[in-house]
Amino acid sequence: MDASASPIVDISALTKVYPGGLTALDGVDLRIRKGEIFALLGPNGAGKTTLIGAICGLVTPTSGSIRVFGHDLATDWRKARQRIGLVPQELSTDMFDPVMRAVSYSRGLFGLAPDPARIEEILRSLSLWDKREERIMALSGGMKRRVLIAKALAHEPDLLFLDEPTAGVDVELRKGMWSIIDEMRSRGVTIILTTHYIEEAEEMADRVGVIRKGRIIAVDEKEALMARLGRTEAHIALAAPLQVLPPEIARFSVELEDGGTSLCYRGGDGTGKGKAEVAELTKALYAAGIDYTGIEIRESSLEDIFVSLLGEGEQ
Protein backbone atom coordinates (compact mmCIF):
# COMPACT_ATOMS: atom_id res chain seq x y z
CA MET A 1 0.00 0.00 0.00
CA ASP A 2 1.51 3.28 -1.16
CA ALA A 3 0.95 5.94 1.50
CA SER A 4 2.06 8.65 -0.92
CA ALA A 5 -0.58 7.81 -3.56
CA SER A 6 -3.64 10.02 -3.96
CA PRO A 7 -6.38 9.05 -1.50
CA ILE A 8 -9.45 7.34 -2.93
CA VAL A 9 -11.57 9.16 -0.31
CA ASP A 10 -10.73 12.78 0.42
CA ILE A 11 -12.93 14.59 2.96
CA SER A 12 -12.38 18.23 3.89
CA ALA A 13 -14.15 20.32 6.57
CA LEU A 14 -17.25 18.12 6.42
CA THR A 15 -20.13 19.32 8.58
CA LYS A 16 -23.64 18.01 9.03
CA VAL A 17 -26.18 19.89 11.14
CA TYR A 18 -29.65 18.35 11.34
CA PRO A 19 -32.86 20.37 11.70
CA GLY A 20 -33.15 21.29 15.37
CA GLY A 21 -29.46 22.10 15.68
CA LEU A 22 -27.88 18.66 16.25
CA THR A 23 -24.33 18.73 14.88
CA ALA A 24 -23.56 15.19 13.76
CA LEU A 25 -20.31 16.02 11.93
CA ASP A 26 -18.14 18.96 12.88
CA GLY A 27 -15.36 19.85 10.45
CA VAL A 28 -14.23 16.32 9.60
CA ASP A 29 -11.01 15.92 7.59
CA LEU A 30 -10.16 12.37 6.54
CA ARG A 31 -8.26 10.63 3.76
CA ILE A 32 -8.51 6.93 2.94
CA ARG A 33 -5.81 5.11 0.98
CA LYS A 34 -6.37 2.49 -1.68
CA GLY A 35 -6.21 -1.10 -0.42
CA GLU A 36 -6.28 -0.41 3.32
CA ILE A 37 -8.61 -1.51 6.07
CA PHE A 38 -9.57 1.58 8.04
CA ALA A 39 -11.42 1.19 11.35
CA LEU A 40 -13.55 4.09 12.54
CA LEU A 41 -14.12 3.88 16.29
CA GLY A 42 -16.44 5.95 18.43
CA PRO A 43 -19.27 5.69 20.96
CA ASN A 44 -22.93 5.69 19.98
CA GLY A 45 -23.94 9.06 18.55
CA ALA A 46 -20.36 10.01 17.67
CA GLY A 47 -21.17 10.45 13.97
CA LYS A 48 -19.88 7.18 12.47
CA THR A 49 -23.02 6.24 10.58
CA THR A 50 -23.64 9.84 9.46
CA LEU A 51 -20.12 9.99 8.03
CA ILE A 52 -20.59 6.74 6.13
CA GLY A 53 -23.98 7.94 4.88
CA ALA A 54 -22.42 11.15 3.59
CA ILE A 55 -19.70 9.29 1.67
CA CYS A 56 -22.28 6.89 0.20
CA GLY A 57 -24.54 9.74 -0.92
CA LEU A 58 -27.29 8.91 1.58
CA VAL A 59 -26.77 12.01 3.75
CA THR A 60 -26.47 15.54 2.34
CA PRO A 61 -23.70 17.48 4.11
CA THR A 62 -24.34 20.98 5.41
CA SER A 63 -20.89 22.11 4.26
CA GLY A 64 -17.50 20.76 3.29
CA SER A 65 -16.44 18.49 0.44
CA ILE A 66 -16.14 14.78 -0.32
CA ARG A 67 -14.20 13.38 -3.25
CA VAL A 68 -14.33 9.64 -3.95
CA PHE A 69 -12.17 8.19 -6.74
CA GLY A 70 -11.66 11.77 -7.89
CA HIS A 71 -15.40 12.46 -8.21
CA ASP A 72 -16.92 15.34 -6.27
CA LEU A 73 -19.99 13.91 -4.55
CA ALA A 74 -21.76 17.27 -4.74
CA THR A 75 -21.80 17.16 -8.55
CA ASP A 76 -20.95 13.62 -9.66
CA TRP A 77 -22.16 11.26 -6.94
CA ARG A 78 -23.59 8.62 -9.29
CA LYS A 79 -20.19 7.71 -10.77
CA ALA A 80 -18.65 7.51 -7.32
CA ARG A 81 -21.54 5.49 -5.87
CA GLN A 82 -21.15 2.80 -8.56
CA ARG A 83 -17.78 1.92 -7.06
CA ILE A 84 -18.98 1.87 -3.44
CA GLY A 85 -20.53 -1.03 -1.54
CA LEU A 86 -22.35 -0.54 1.76
CA VAL A 87 -23.16 -3.17 4.38
CA PRO A 88 -25.60 -1.43 6.75
CA GLN A 89 -26.26 -2.38 10.35
CA GLU A 90 -29.83 -3.48 9.68
CA LEU A 91 -31.22 -5.86 7.08
CA SER A 92 -33.31 -3.76 4.71
CA THR A 93 -34.12 -6.31 2.03
CA ASP A 94 -37.26 -8.33 1.29
CA MET A 95 -37.16 -11.11 3.87
CA PHE A 96 -39.30 -13.33 1.62
CA ASP A 97 -36.75 -13.24 -1.23
CA PRO A 98 -34.48 -16.24 -1.77
CA VAL A 99 -30.81 -15.41 -1.26
CA MET A 100 -29.86 -15.79 -4.94
CA ARG A 101 -32.61 -13.46 -6.15
CA ALA A 102 -31.85 -10.78 -3.53
CA VAL A 103 -28.13 -10.69 -4.38
CA SER A 104 -28.73 -10.74 -8.15
CA TYR A 105 -31.24 -7.91 -7.80
CA SER A 106 -28.65 -5.78 -6.00
CA ARG A 107 -26.33 -6.16 -8.98
CA GLY A 108 -29.08 -5.04 -11.34
CA LEU A 109 -29.72 -1.91 -9.29
CA PHE A 110 -26.36 -0.59 -10.46
CA GLY A 111 -27.17 -1.23 -14.12
CA LEU A 112 -24.83 -4.21 -14.47
CA ALA A 113 -25.70 -7.12 -16.75
CA PRO A 114 -26.63 -10.40 -15.04
CA ASP A 115 -23.61 -12.52 -14.19
CA PRO A 116 -24.68 -15.79 -12.52
CA ALA A 117 -21.07 -17.01 -12.36
CA ARG A 118 -19.98 -13.93 -10.41
CA ILE A 119 -22.96 -14.21 -8.04
CA GLU A 120 -22.11 -17.87 -7.48
CA GLU A 121 -18.50 -16.93 -6.68
CA ILE A 122 -19.65 -14.36 -4.13
CA LEU A 123 -22.11 -16.73 -2.49
CA ARG A 124 -19.54 -19.52 -2.30
CA SER A 125 -16.94 -17.20 -0.77
CA LEU A 126 -19.45 -16.34 1.96
CA SER A 127 -20.60 -19.96 2.50
CA LEU A 128 -24.05 -19.03 1.20
CA TRP A 129 -24.19 -21.17 -1.94
CA ASP A 130 -26.00 -24.02 -0.19
CA LYS A 131 -28.54 -21.46 1.07
CA ARG A 132 -29.11 -19.79 -2.30
CA GLU A 133 -32.74 -20.95 -2.65
CA GLU A 134 -33.69 -20.34 0.99
CA ARG A 135 -35.71 -17.31 1.95
CA ILE A 136 -33.70 -14.75 3.89
CA MET A 137 -36.20 -14.84 6.77
CA ALA A 138 -35.29 -18.50 7.40
CA LEU A 139 -31.58 -17.80 7.88
CA SER A 140 -29.69 -17.37 11.13
CA GLY A 141 -28.53 -13.91 12.22
CA GLY A 142 -24.98 -14.60 11.08
CA MET A 143 -26.13 -15.83 7.66
CA LYS A 144 -28.37 -12.78 7.23
CA ARG A 145 -25.32 -10.62 7.91
CA ARG A 146 -23.48 -12.51 5.17
CA VAL A 147 -26.35 -11.84 2.77
CA LEU A 148 -25.87 -8.12 3.42
CA ILE A 149 -22.19 -8.46 2.48
CA ALA A 150 -23.07 -10.47 -0.64
CA LYS A 151 -25.54 -7.79 -1.74
CA ALA A 152 -22.90 -5.10 -1.23
CA LEU A 153 -20.36 -7.07 -3.28
CA ALA A 154 -22.76 -7.91 -6.13
CA HIS A 155 -21.77 -4.89 -8.22
CA GLU A 156 -18.05 -5.49 -7.58
CA PRO A 157 -17.22 -2.31 -5.63
CA ASP A 158 -13.69 -1.00 -5.13
CA LEU A 159 -14.60 0.57 -1.77
CA LEU A 160 -16.65 -1.29 0.84
CA PHE A 161 -18.22 0.19 3.96
CA LEU A 162 -19.04 -2.18 6.82
CA ASP A 163 -21.21 -0.50 9.46
CA GLU A 164 -20.93 -2.66 12.60
CA PRO A 165 -20.50 -5.84 10.51
CA THR A 166 -20.39 -8.26 13.44
CA ALA A 167 -22.89 -6.64 15.80
CA GLY A 168 -25.11 -9.28 17.33
CA VAL A 169 -23.18 -12.32 16.11
CA ASP A 170 -21.29 -14.75 18.31
CA VAL A 171 -17.52 -14.92 18.67
CA GLU A 172 -17.09 -17.81 16.23
CA LEU A 173 -19.07 -16.05 13.50
CA ARG A 174 -17.22 -12.82 14.24
CA LYS A 175 -13.88 -14.48 13.56
CA GLY A 176 -15.35 -15.94 10.38
CA MET A 177 -16.29 -12.43 9.30
CA TRP A 178 -12.74 -11.26 9.95
CA SER A 179 -11.53 -13.97 7.55
CA ILE A 180 -14.00 -12.80 4.90
CA ILE A 181 -12.88 -9.19 5.31
CA ASP A 182 -9.23 -10.20 4.99
CA GLU A 183 -10.03 -12.12 1.79
CA MET A 184 -11.79 -9.08 0.32
CA ARG A 185 -8.77 -6.92 1.11
CA SER A 186 -6.53 -9.46 -0.67
CA ARG A 187 -8.63 -8.88 -3.79
CA GLY A 188 -7.78 -5.18 -3.66
CA VAL A 189 -11.00 -3.91 -2.08
CA THR A 190 -10.53 -0.93 0.24
CA ILE A 191 -12.53 -1.43 3.44
CA ILE A 192 -13.82 1.07 5.97
CA LEU A 193 -15.49 -0.44 9.01
CA THR A 194 -17.14 0.93 12.09
CA THR A 195 -17.20 -1.30 15.11
CA HIS A 196 -18.00 -1.47 18.81
CA TYR A 197 -15.57 -4.37 19.16
CA ILE A 198 -12.15 -2.86 19.71
CA GLU A 199 -10.46 -6.23 19.23
CA GLU A 200 -11.95 -6.24 15.72
CA ALA A 201 -9.99 -3.11 14.86
CA GLU A 202 -6.92 -4.43 16.65
CA GLU A 203 -7.11 -7.66 14.63
CA MET A 204 -7.94 -6.30 11.19
CA ALA A 205 -7.19 -2.61 10.70
CA ASP A 206 -4.17 -1.00 9.07
CA ARG A 207 -5.18 2.44 10.35
CA VAL A 208 -7.55 3.59 13.07
CA GLY A 209 -9.58 6.77 13.42
CA VAL A 210 -11.42 7.81 16.57
CA ILE A 211 -14.48 10.03 16.27
CA ARG A 212 -16.18 11.79 19.17
CA LYS A 213 -19.11 14.22 19.01
CA GLY A 214 -18.70 14.57 15.25
CA ARG A 215 -14.98 15.32 15.35
CA ILE A 216 -12.05 13.11 14.41
CA ILE A 217 -9.80 13.23 17.46
CA ALA A 218 -7.11 10.77 16.30
CA VAL A 219 -6.04 9.07 13.06
CA ASP A 220 -2.90 6.97 12.71
CA GLU A 221 -1.43 3.65 11.73
CA LYS A 222 -2.63 1.14 14.29
CA GLU A 223 0.85 0.19 15.48
CA ALA A 224 1.99 3.82 15.57
CA LEU A 225 -1.08 4.83 17.58
CA MET A 226 -0.45 2.07 20.10
CA ALA A 227 3.25 2.99 20.35
CA ARG A 228 2.57 6.72 20.67
CA LEU A 229 -0.32 6.58 23.13
CA GLY A 230 0.27 3.22 24.76
CA ARG A 231 1.50 2.72 28.28
CA THR A 232 3.24 -0.01 30.22
CA GLU A 233 1.73 -1.12 33.52
CA ALA A 234 3.56 -3.35 35.98
CA HIS A 235 2.36 -4.74 39.31
CA ILE A 236 5.13 -5.90 41.65
CA ALA A 237 4.20 -8.02 44.68
CA LEU A 238 6.48 -7.03 47.57
CA ALA A 239 7.84 -9.63 49.98
CA ALA A 240 7.19 -7.26 52.91
CA PRO A 241 4.86 -4.22 53.01
CA LEU A 242 6.31 -0.73 52.73
CA GLN A 243 4.99 2.34 54.52
CA VAL A 244 6.84 4.83 52.32
CA LEU A 245 8.93 4.65 49.16
CA PRO A 246 12.63 5.47 49.44
CA PRO A 247 13.77 8.33 47.13
CA GLU A 248 15.63 5.98 44.76
CA ILE A 249 12.32 4.17 44.07
CA ALA A 250 10.02 7.18 44.24
CA ARG A 251 11.79 8.72 41.23
CA PHE A 252 9.97 6.18 39.05
CA SER A 253 6.28 6.50 38.04
CA VAL A 254 5.18 4.23 40.86
CA GLU A 255 2.79 4.16 43.79
CA LEU A 256 2.10 1.80 46.64
CA GLU A 257 -1.15 -0.17 46.57
CA ASP A 258 -2.94 -2.82 48.63
CA GLY A 259 -1.73 -1.50 51.95
CA GLY A 260 1.86 -1.24 50.82
CA THR A 261 2.10 -4.86 49.69
CA SER A 262 2.13 -4.04 45.99
CA LEU A 263 4.04 -1.54 43.85
CA CYS A 264 2.35 -0.31 40.69
CA TYR A 265 4.30 1.24 37.80
CA ARG A 266 2.47 3.18 35.08
CA GLY A 267 4.59 4.89 32.49
CA GLY A 268 6.44 4.64 29.23
CA ASP A 269 5.09 8.01 27.98
CA GLY A 270 4.05 6.44 24.69
CA THR A 271 7.59 5.90 23.41
CA GLY A 272 7.70 2.17 24.10
CA LYS A 273 10.36 2.55 26.78
CA GLY A 274 8.12 1.29 29.59
CA LYS A 275 9.61 -2.21 29.71
CA ALA A 276 13.11 -0.77 29.94
CA GLU A 277 12.03 1.43 32.86
CA VAL A 278 10.48 -1.58 34.61
CA ALA A 279 13.82 -3.38 34.26
CA GLU A 280 15.58 -0.37 35.81
CA LEU A 281 12.99 -0.33 38.58
CA THR A 282 13.63 -3.95 39.51
CA LYS A 283 17.37 -3.25 39.65
CA ALA A 284 16.72 -0.25 41.91
CA LEU A 285 14.55 -2.38 44.20
CA TYR A 286 17.33 -4.95 44.48
CA ALA A 287 19.92 -2.23 45.20
CA ALA A 288 17.67 -0.77 47.90
CA GLY A 289 17.28 -4.18 49.55
CA ILE A 290 13.56 -4.40 48.74
CA ASP A 291 12.58 -7.96 47.88
CA TYR A 292 9.60 -8.89 45.70
CA THR A 293 7.84 -12.18 45.02
CA GLY A 294 6.28 -11.60 41.61
CA ILE A 295 5.86 -9.14 38.78
CA GLU A 296 3.11 -8.79 36.16
CA ILE A 297 3.58 -6.54 33.11
CA ARG A 298 1.01 -5.57 30.50
CA GLU A 299 1.01 -3.18 27.56
CA SER A 300 -1.94 -0.96 26.69
CA SER A 301 -4.42 -2.47 24.27
CA LEU A 302 -6.13 -0.46 21.57
CA GLU A 303 -9.18 -0.47 23.83
CA ASP A 304 -7.21 1.20 26.63
CA ILE A 305 -6.10 3.91 24.22
CA PHE A 306 -9.63 4.36 22.87
CA VAL A 307 -11.07 4.78 26.36
CA SER A 308 -8.26 7.17 27.29
CA LEU A 309 -8.88 9.34 24.22
CA LEU A 310 -12.60 9.55 24.95
CA GLY A 311 -11.85 10.38 28.58
CA GLU A 312 -9.55 13.23 27.58
CA GLY A 313 -12.37 14.65 25.48
CA GLU A 314 -14.63 14.84 28.52
CA GLN A 315 -12.25 17.11 30.41
From TrEMBL:
Keyword entries, A-Z: ATP-binding, Nucleotide-binding, Transport
SUPFAM superfamilies associated with the record: P-loop containing nucleoside triphosphate hydrolases
InterPro entries for this protein: AAA+_ATPase, ABC_transporter-like_ATP-bd, ABC_transporter-like_CS, ABC_transporter_ATP-binding, P-loop_NTPase
Organism superkingdom: Bacteria
GO molecular function: ATP binding; ATP hydrolysis activity
Domain ABC transporter, first and last residues per copy: 9-238
Protein name listed in UniProt: ABC transporter ATP-binding protein
Annotated source species: Qipengyuania atrilutea
